[in-house]
Amino acid sequence: xxxxxxxxxxxxCSAVVAGAAVAASPxxxxxxxxxxxxxDSGGHVVVTTTGQHLIMFVTAKRFSTDGTSDxxxxxxxxxxxxxxxxxxxxxxxxxxxxxxxxxHRVRTGKQAKPYGKIRLRTHPxxxxxxxxxxxxxxxxxxxxxxxxxxxFKTHNKHWGRVAKRHIRMTHGTLVGEHGPDAEEACARQVxxxxxxxxxxxxxxxxxxxxxxxxxxxPRPKSTIEANRLVRLAAPDGxxxxxxxxxxxxxxxxxxxxxxxxxxxxxxxxSIATGKALLVSSTKRPYSQACKTGTERGREYDTSWxxxxxxxxxxxxxxxxxxxxxxxxxxxxxx
Length: 334
Hints:
This protein is mostly beta strands. It has two domains: 13-185, AttH-like fold (Beta Barrel); 195-333. Helix content is 5%, strand content 55%. It contains three helices and 21 strands. The protein has helices at 3-8, 12-17, 182-185; strands at 35-40, 44-47, 53-63, 75-83, 88-96, 105-107, 116-124, 129-134, 137-153, 161-178, 195-202, 205-210, 223-231, 239-247, 252-256, 259-265, 272-290, 293-302, 305-311, 317-321, 326-333. The chain has a 21-stranded antiparallel beta sheet that branches. Strand 17 and strand 18 (293-302) form a beta hairpin. It is globular, with a radius of gyration of 21 Å. The two termini are 18 Å apart.
């Protein structure tokens, strides 16, 4: 099983949102691109109408569905709002038709109604750098500055809305992926980590916990993260992802009636409450190459008994109670 599953597959719905984007000129690439994505790593500080100080990210993506040029293809635009301590975030993703973003701009028009409107232009900061990943597969990357206006309504009484305002984001990265296997072939090898991670999913809510740490940070830190995907009534195809993360005590490996088990607790005073017990039904060896060696250990399929709740400020509780399935990994670096 891949690192994605071990370190956050329970948050797989976030992958749908990851990176939205602006297109660059197809002429800037030597081959037919399949997709172009602008990742905004810096964000923009905003104050909502209810006084919330948040970080806003606006990203977009366009992609070809038949292997031809992505120019003029449909895509998606995402608005993410995050607390300044990065413990809570909510992102809204909207499907957009071809031409909603061209080589130099992004315009949602009424496609994000009733949530808002986005008008952005992109300006390259650097030339494109090519990275070849295999036969017929490569990426090209450049940094971008994004300017324009954004008006957005969260439809939440606590977070309010972001009134129309001019923004300037200087930490954009434009990535073009080329070739049928580009996404897999061009994926970077994961850093080596050791420790324990666990995950579960039930009733549209994912929970994942981790004590994983690299060789230069031998002292583990434990976290619990919750994630929920919500389909929106309008516009068609739109969805919201709610996410919250908090510190937690280190999980404890125990033996329960002859079976390996993991006891999970939450920290007093944190946004999480409750506890859970993962009792193993099956186990298997785990091995995965990483950046500086190999991760080895065991993966355990388990039950999930108990309940853990993460309390968000905007859209309510994220809770998993008595889930039918969970799993956890215990790994070391070799």
